[in-house]
Specification:
Layout: E1 6-10, E2 16-24, E3 26-28, E4 31-33, E5 39-42, E6 47-51, E7 56-63, E8 70-73, E9 76-78, H1 81-92, H2 94-98, E10 122-124
Antiparallel strand pairs: 1-6, 2-5, 2-7, 3-4, 3-6, 8-9, 8-10
Length: 125
């Protein structure tokens, strides 16, 4: 966006959208946005207004919402808890898991400690 610019964009109300400031200064309908923080704009919007005081780069993505609820656990995204539970088998193959082979890699040098993930999948809606 150019310094001092306002950008009004028409949106499809049937789609949901998210915005990400890549660099610089951008605002959404009067609210300042932080760089590299995704902002979920939701659906049912017919337009959106972005502004910039000093200029910036903004990414707007959107599309039809998923027809079902989405679960997210660690770096797995699925529709059901069973799909999350089955993920290691899909990645390395069930036979590899039964043979005791490592399905996931290990932390490389420089890693301070192992990061612990949430115990349960989180629903995204």
């Amino acid at each position: 966006m150019h310094p001092g610019a306002a950008l009004d964009l028409p949106l499809d109300v049937a789609c949901e959208y998210a915005a990400l400031v890549l660099s610089g200064d951008c605002g959404l309908e009067g609210q300042a946005l932080q760089e590299r923080v995704p902002y979920y704009l939701g659906a049912n919007r017919s337009e959106v207004r972005f502004t910039s005081r000093s200029g910036g780069r903004l990414l707007l993505v959107g599309g039809p919402p998923f027809p079902e609820k989405i679960l997210m656990w660690w770096n797995f995204v699925a529709r059901t808890p069973q799909e999350i539970a089955d993920a290691p088998y899909r990645l390395g193959g069930a036979a590899a898991v039964r043979r005791g082979e490592r399905v996931f890699g290990t932390a490389s040098r420089g890693a301070k400690r192992r990061q612990v993930c949430e115990s349960e999948p989180r629903q995204l809606s």
